[in-house]
Amino acid sequence: MEEEKKQDKEVQGLQAKNSQKQYDKEENLPEQEMEEKLKEEPVNKKMTILNFALIIAIFIGLGIYMISVDGIDNIIEVLKSVNYGWVFLGLICIITHWLCEAITLHFPLKKLYKDHKFFISLKVAMIGQLFNNITPFATGGQPMQAYELTRDGKRISDSLSVLAMKFIVTQTALVVSSAIVVIFQLDFFINLMGGYIWIAAIGFALNIIAIVGVILVGIKKSIVTFFTTPIIKLLGKIHILKNPEHTIEKLDHSIDNFRAQFIYMKDEKMMVLKMFITSVIQSFAYYAITYAIYRAFGNSGVSLWQIIPAQAFLLLVMIFIPTPGSGLGAEGGFYLIFNSIFKEGTINMSILFWRLYTFYLPIIVGALFLIPVKKLSRKKVE
Q1: 211, part of any domain
Q2: Across residues 40-45, what is the average pLDDT?
Q3: What's the domain range around 327?
Q4: 3, part of any domain
Q5: Potential cystine with 311: which of 57, 123, 287, 341 (Cβ 3.0-4.6 Å)?
Q6: Which pTM value belongs to this model?
Q7: How many domains, in total, are found in the chain?
Q8: What CA–CA distance (Å, rounded) separates 268 from 107?
Q9: Beta-carbon neighbour count of residue 309 at 10 Å?
């Protein structure tokens, strides 16, 4: 019996490692269709322009609000008193956040493609940062990352599997690390949140559900199809989907592709552990930006470990705000959560600095990675 299990495991691993070859067959039409569609129209250009216009409007609106509330003279005085050593540390934190994002992505890609370069992982990570921030609910990041990986010669099935795997690890790291800090800083967190503590609980719960859902796709296909198949058929009956059977077939194929990679990744426990540790560092680097801003404006008395759970809560809530980069909701949430611990007259400038780090700077830097450069030799994996 053990010998049979061992043979099954070896077969599954071999299937996953050779996924590039097995999907070259003619029956692999769903993946080919997906790849062609991704190449033809990876992003809605009109919607992107509209989102950029909204982002600029939010920035202008924030500036007008600050001037009307704080006044030019007070803003100038606040800027003169800023400790720019902490401002620079905040910049180091966001760069660390980006590098960890790229490293987490690089681990599985390097396993699947031995000649994969780190610069490509960095480029894909920054493109994800750009499109996550200019699309509602951060929906544009992963499709554009998959598109870029496809352009670099990666299989669409491998790209989507790697991105899904990264989602599991990074979200798990986010929730676990934040939950641990919340436990140790529970009294401070409850006092700071006040009447919003129930929203924090819902935010954590929804992220846990999302993680469990993706894991189920990888280990228990029948549970996923049990729920998705009736929904797809219902959408077909009410004429929302034109061809429900074709949709079910494509979904079934995508799940099989993901499961093949998931089985392979399960055997790479050390790689997953490296991804998890890097993701924890990435989360703390992001949270530390708020602490750097807190200290830059002359505040003291609250530790980094007390800032972390509050910032984690804000990040979880921002996911559900339906504007590019969670605009307006993110600024409002920052004000409601941190206003009580910042010096009077500094909260608005703190919000501006925080958004420059976490919103506008990723857009600017991410856009730089879209500038055409002399292409390296790219060869499609056969």
Answers
A1: yes
A2: 61
A3: 50-368
A4: no
A5: 287
A6: 0.78
A7: 1
A8: 10
A9: 25
